[in-house]
Specification:
Blueprint: H1 4-11, E1 17-19, H2 24-34, E2 38-43, E3 46-52, H3 53-61, H4 89-99, E4 103-108, E5 111-117, H5 118-142
Parallel strand pairs: 1-2
Antiparallel strand pairs: 2-3, 4-5
């Protein structure tokens, strides 16, 4: 059965993080610069929350707060749903769907070890489907024909 480690092996372990005391404006700039939709909030290498585009929209823009003075710690989502490298991908998808989230930090012994997104899950699923299609195509059209037909 497929697990998170397979995705991490393909995409790598790099995760963009931010500290508690950073401003929401700094978080928004970092997300824009990196072209990503979330930042894992850390204290050292320990995951303590996550801040997303949605958090900034709802808790800064809609609330008419000043992003330059509002700290990440006051807008982040915490506690954050996490997974482990051995977590099955179906479980990740179920958590993301039920909690309506798009990012799952990967944690090992309390320390950040990667991140899995809904896009990663979808790409993995598409790759598996493509492999199945190729296998079936090979089976159907490259199989030897029986003698005497």
């Amino acid at each position: 059965m497929n697990n998170v480690q397979q995705i991490l092996d393909r995409k790598g372990l790099e995760v963009t993080t931010i500290g508690l005391r950073a401003s929401a404006l700094q978080a928004a700039h970092l997300m824009n610069d990196m072209r990503i939709g979330s930042l894992v909030v850390v204290d050292g290498d320990r995951v303590i929350g996550i801040v997303t585009e949605r958090d900034i929209l709802r808790r800064i823009v809609a609330a008419e707060r000043d992003p330059a003075v509002t700290r990440v710690e006051s807008i982040m989502t915490a506690p954050v749903a996490c997974c482990r490298p051995d977590t099955h991908l179906e479980e990740c998808r179920a958590v993301m769907t039920s909690q309506r989230i798009r990012h799952l930090p990967v944690v090992v012994d309390g320390h950040l070890a990667g991140i899995v997104t809904i896009g990663d899950l979808t790409a993995h699923e598409i790759q598996e489907h493509q492999q199945t299609i190729e296998y079936l195509h090979e089976y159907l059209y490259s199989a030897p024909t029986p003698m005497g037909t």
